[in-house]
Write a sequence for this structure.
């Protein structure tokens, strides 16, 4: 009865997913808020139903209900409870159910998250539901886990012994959380395309999901690698097996996405590319699912071929990849270009990073799919193994790793490679010294290993230098530096940790060049030397296990006569499947390991074939991956993730739309909209990050008062420059918005917001700008070499326009007073395709809060002549 | 830096890196791919000695001889021909006579296959696909050997 309930719950989940797919999309189309609001509760209910179904399967497995085909094929009464539980997703059917469970879990998380704009959320949930529908159909029609068996056998066939390991409890769920996590960014990307709004707000909303999926995928891959390392008995950690590649490709694409979404969030650049990456990442996840689940691959993970399933997944793959790319091709040209930046800048470095990662991903894809394509086309069977990937993948990663520290030091928008290079002299020098020292100490060994270790060291030292450079206070007490370091945003620490983690992994992999292997036959009492260790075979004994019996070889590992560790290597025989597995004996000595794999045992335990490995620093491979994931997690907890997106004042109407009438027609900017925005009918966005974002945006929309706590110079200059707008009758005080951090960070962030205005001034002057306005830096806020505004030219223009003799008094002279200071705005600062929307409508035009950004104001003499509206000291002096 | 210049820079960088990656991939493809051969193909001497290849078939019953120093010799056949194989090292758990196996290595001029890796799969009912296909091509495929399994 329970399995039928589970089956029924799955069918219900399918039906409800269809509702979640269709109704909100229709609602968004016709502008019916009620219909749109169906999406979140539907997502929660679908998750509940799938969870019920999963629980039903779990009950069948734990209760050893062999009348269920899936249980009888994968379980056994003698199997320990933990493997009965993990056996749920050991089979194809169960693992697809886990896939869908995690998919709907993400849907439920999105439904309950409060940081997303309402329309985006609705669309994303609908897209998410479409994926759910496809996979629920797949489960129900081609791999139903609740299929019954009649008559029920008395005993099950037991789980594949290789899978009877704690690794199974951890690896697949983590991997799926990563794989499926990218479905969320996919859904968000599609939603943004459908909605037609792709901007920093989107990037801000998408970034946590990218980070989350990436962290899980990193951990999942690392865990799978370690599991294969200790379970398969080959001593290798990565085999370039197609299934491993299938998980590596989304990771590479996801890493690229993680970086490009940052560019988009901070600078609104790379929009089209980011959206494309979000689509590609999930497409690669789907491809991975297809490769693993359809059985087209021959690999250690291969499943027997089942054509119906393969074709079904291929159809899903085609529909989603083809469909999403079509929508992309249709909508992407409508996306507007983002901010300008120089090639040598943080953005430029991140583009390079993306290019390298994408190319590396491409080579892996080629190496994975080429044999399949060749076989399908010509029938020729080839295998593309480690040599191919070592030749293509690694050369692409070397420049990438070398580039990382530079990227970390470069400034946004326009960087100084030379200055950054100077700061990196120390880390690069230290890494070079380390690798030269190693090469000298281990002369005669592999040449590339010290170089590769140097590469890893560059990453680690570069990250340290990054943190140090951000927090170092020249000629100040150490405590100041420490305090600054502690005050750095967590995302800074997270990125440093993740990059250092990559370095640790690189070092761990490089050190494997020094690992040694020995295949030998030993009698009890004899010992063999591997590396600097003596390994002695103590004895060989048979031993019974819960559902197997094993021959255990005990070994003592000595160094200089002292026993460092005792390990047991075993060969297990599972009678139910008449299968043997090898359990490696692993002794962890420091960061390295001695790895013993048991081979043939001669009759009576007289001698045993052994394979011994000395693997120095091998643990670093996985510790580095854990550090990467920890860095991602640290970044995830950053304050930036919780506070609202930096909505710009340009979204003049959006505060009202966000806070008030979500989904409704966008209200034109005006007192009415403002009033609604302020005292609007609430809605979920009022609370939480979005609400705060809305309040912040509203504050900015309310006029030039968005930067109430700005440092003085900025306020004076731009505030007054803006003061000449016609009748700024809006209130100048900002509402209570807690969207700005305090202290130093406040200043930096606030200044960042001012930069568009600054850029405008720079373009108007046609002069290079001094280092972007960070206090303490040369140049301050004024374009290098410029004179205080207004320029004399403007003044002359003003005078020339003035009728000589008589007329109103001369235009006020002095700093930023009155209308004259608007001169910089006389020239339009944007070129090319940028559209300038008329003021008063919702527009995406980039603007700073304090300079009006309507149609470029072609100033006329009359404007300049207009008497100053605010009293000013300078006026007095001019008079 | 105008938008056009920026775009040109990016496109140029992308082109350079992609071209480099493609060049690497093509070179690697030429040198590193390994073809899969059946014992019949190998026995008919169409493969020059020294080329790396994969050989798949069934381990001939009664052919496994263990020598000193962990050297194992066995024969891989597909019913029509057999190829002698020498391998030094530990054999995988699922290696046994009469079962499917894939060995990778090169041929020496005498026709002996020097294997450096032996792959046998992790399920007693699983047959390496290449082996199954080769056997099917030879008409020696028995459906019972390839029953469906749904194990990871």
């Amino acid at each position: 009865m329970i399995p039928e309930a589970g089956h029924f719950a799955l069918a219900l989940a399918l039906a409800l997913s269809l509702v979640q797919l269709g109704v909100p999309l229709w609602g968004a189309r016709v502008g019916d808020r009620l219909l749109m609001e169906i999406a979140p509760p539907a997502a929660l209910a679908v998750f509940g139903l799938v969870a019920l179904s999963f629980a039903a399967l779990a009950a069948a497995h734990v209760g050893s209900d062999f009348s269920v085909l899936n249980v009888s094929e994968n379980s056994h009464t003698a199997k320990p409870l933990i493997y009965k539980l993990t056996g749920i997703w050991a089979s194809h059917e169960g693992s697809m159910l886990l896939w869908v469970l995690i998919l709907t879990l993400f849907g439920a998380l999105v439904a309950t998250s409060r940081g997303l704009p309402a329309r985006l959320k609705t669309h994303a949930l609908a897209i998410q539901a479409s994926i759910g529908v496809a996979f629920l159909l797949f489960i129900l029609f081609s791999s139903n886990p609740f299929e019954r068996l009649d008559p029920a056998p008395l005993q099950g066939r037991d789980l594949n012994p290789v899978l009877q390991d704690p690794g199974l409890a951890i690896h697949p769920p983590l991997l799926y959380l990563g794989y499926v996590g990218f479905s969320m960014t996919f859904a968000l990307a599609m939603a943004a395309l459908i909605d037609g709004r792709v901007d920093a707000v989107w990037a801000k909303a998408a970034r946590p999901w990218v980070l989350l999926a990436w962290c899980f995928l990193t951990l999942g891959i690392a865990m799978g690698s370690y599991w294969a390392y200790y379970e398969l008995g080959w001593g290798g950690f990565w085999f370039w097996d197609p299934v491993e590649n299938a998980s590596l490709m989304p990771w590479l694409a996801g890493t690229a996405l993680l970086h490009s979404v940052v560019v988009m969030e901070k600078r609104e650049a790379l929009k089209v590319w980011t959206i494309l990456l979000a689509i590609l990442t999930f497409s690669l996840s789907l491809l991975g699912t297809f490769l693993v689940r359809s059985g087209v691959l021959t690999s250690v993970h291969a499943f027997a071929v089942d054509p119906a399933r393969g074709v079904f997944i291929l159809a899903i793959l085609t529909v989603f990849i083809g469909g999403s790319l079509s929508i992309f091709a249709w909508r992407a040209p409508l996306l507007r270009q983002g901010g300008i930046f120089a090639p040598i800048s943080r953005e430029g470095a991140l583009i390079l990073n993306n290019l390298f990662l994408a190319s590396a991903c491409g080579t892996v894809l080629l190496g994975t799919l080429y044999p399949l394509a060749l076989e399908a086309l010509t029938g020729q069977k080839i295998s593309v193994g480690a040599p191919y990937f070592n030749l293509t993948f690694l050369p692409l990663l070397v420049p990438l790793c070398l580039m990382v520290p530079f990227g970390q030091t470069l400034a946004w928008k326009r960087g100084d490679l030379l200055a950054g290079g100077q700061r990196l002299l120390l880390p690069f020098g230290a890494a070079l010294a380390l690798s030269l020292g190693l090469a000298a100490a281990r002369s005669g060994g592999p040449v590339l290993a010290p170089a590769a270790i140097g590469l890893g060291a560059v990453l680690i030292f570069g990250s340290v230098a990054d943190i140090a450079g951000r927090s170092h206070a020249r000629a100040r007490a150490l405590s100041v530096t420490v305090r600054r370091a502690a005050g750095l945003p967590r995302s800074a620490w997270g990125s440093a940790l993740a990059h250092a983690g990559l370095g640790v992994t690189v070092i761990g992999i490089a050190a494997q060049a020094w690992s040694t292997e020995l295949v030998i036959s030993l009698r009890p009492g004899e010992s063999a030397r591997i590396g600097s260790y003596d390994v002695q075979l103590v004895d060989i004994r048979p031993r019974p296990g819960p559902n197997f019996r094993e021959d255990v070889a005990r070994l003592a590992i000595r160094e200089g006569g002292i026993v460092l560790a005792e390990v047991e290597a075993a060969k297990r025989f599972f009678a139910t499947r008449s299968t043997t597995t090898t359990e490696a004996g692993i002794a962890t000595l420091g960061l390295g390991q001695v790895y013993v794999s048991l081979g043939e045992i001669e009759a009576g335990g007289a001698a045993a074939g052994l394979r011994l490995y000395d693997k120095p620093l091998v643990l670093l491979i996985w510790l580095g991956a854990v550090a990467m994931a920890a860095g991602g997690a640290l970044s995830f907890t950053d304050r930036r993730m919780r506070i609202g997106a930096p909505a710009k004042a340009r979204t003049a109407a959006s505060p009202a739309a966000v806070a008030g009438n979500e989904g409704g027609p966008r209200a034109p900017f005006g007192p009415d909209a403002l009033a609604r925005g302020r005292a609007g009918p609430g809605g979920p966005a009022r609370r939480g990050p979005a609400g705060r974002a809305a309040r912040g945006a509203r504050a900015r929309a309310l006029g030039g008062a968005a930067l109430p706590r700005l440092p003085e110079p900025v306020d004076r200059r731009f505030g007054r420059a803006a003061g000449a707008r016609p009748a700024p009758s809006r209130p100048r005080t900002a509402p209570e918005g807690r969207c700005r951090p305090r202290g130093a960070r406040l200043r930096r962030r606030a200044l960042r917001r001012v930069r568009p205005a600054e850029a405008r001034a720079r373009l108007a002057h046609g002069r290079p700008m001094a280092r972007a306005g960070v206090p303490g830096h040369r140049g301050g806020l004024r374009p290098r070499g410029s004179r205080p505004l207004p320029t004399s030219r403007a003044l002359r223009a003003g005078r020339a326009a003035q009728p000589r003799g008589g007329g109103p008094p001369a235009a006020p002279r002095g700093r930023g007073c009155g209308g004259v200071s608007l001169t910089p705005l006389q020239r339009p600062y944007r070129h090319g395709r940028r559209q300038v929307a008329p003021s008063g409508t919702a527009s995406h035009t980039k603007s700073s809060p304090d300079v009006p950004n309507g149609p470029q104001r072609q100033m006329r003499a009359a404007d300049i002549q207009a008497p100053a509206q605010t009293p000013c000291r300078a006026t007095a002096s001019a008079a | 830096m105008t938008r056009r210049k920026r775009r040109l820079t990016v496109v140029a960088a992308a082109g350079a890196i992609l071209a480099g990656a493609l060049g690497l991939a093509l070179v690697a493809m030429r040198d590193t791919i390994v073809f899969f051969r059946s014992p019949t193909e190998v026995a008919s001497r169409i493969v020059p000695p020294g080329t790396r290849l994969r050989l798949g078939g069934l381990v001939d019953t009664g052919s496994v001889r263990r020598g000193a120093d962990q050297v194992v010799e066995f024969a891989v056949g597909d019913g029509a021909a057999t190829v002698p194989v020498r391998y030094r090292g530990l054999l995988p758990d699922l290696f046994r006579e009469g079962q499917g196996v894939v060995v990778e290595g090169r041929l020496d001029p005498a026709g002996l296959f020097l294997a450096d890796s032996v792959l046998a799969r992790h399920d007693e009912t699983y047959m390496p696909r290449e082996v199954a296909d080769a056997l099917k091509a030879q008409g020696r495929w028995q459906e019972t050997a390839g029953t469906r399994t749904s194990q990871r």
